[in-house]
Amino acid sequence: MAENEIQGTPAPPETKSWFEYSWKLQQDVPNRLEDAAKFLATIISLTITIIITALDKLFIWVASPIWLFVALTAWLVALLFAFLVLFPRKFVFHSKSVDSIKQAQSKIVRTKQIRFIISTVLYFLPLLLLSVLFLIAKLEGLCIM
Predict the structure, then answer these.
(1) Residue 135 burial (10 A CB sphere; 0-12, 13-18, 19+)
(2) What is the rounded distance in angstroms from the CA atom of residue 46 to the CA atom of residue 52?
(3) Cα radius of gyration (the chain)
(4) What does the domain layout of the chain look like in residue ranges?
(5) CA 41 to CA 53: how far, in whole Å?
(6) C-alpha of 96 from chain center
(7) Span 50-99, pLDDT tens digits
(8) Helices 66-86 and 13-53 sit at what angle, rounded to 10 degrees?
(9) Which pTM value belongs to this model?
């Protein structure tokens, strides 16, 4: 019987503290993604407001107004995906099963991450596109004012 005993020493308090910190970080991922999505939604809204306010001046240096329409549409879709990060989706789990809770949390994180990444890409691509169009217009000597 003595052969089956496992001998060991308890982990030092520092190690236990790091494990608790790691668990806390994993549990806080959805909240951090939601905070980032709120910030991104604010930035997208400000960008849309600035673009709409300066729309008459933007037509001067954008060769085709379709690019402005594409940019505004992409930003509105990005805003939608940023809001989708904030709104909960129904995830089913068994409250007495730790594995079920872990799987549900993993699905929540994965869903929020995908939505946040889509929102971020849909924000930055039109921003990059309009920046390139602006630089091209400047190089060709067009004047914004």
Answers:
(1) exposed
(2) 10
(3) 24
(4) 35-139
(5) 18
(6) 31
(7) 888 887 777 766 667 788 889 899 999 999 999 999 987 776 666 777 78
(8) 150
(9) 0.78
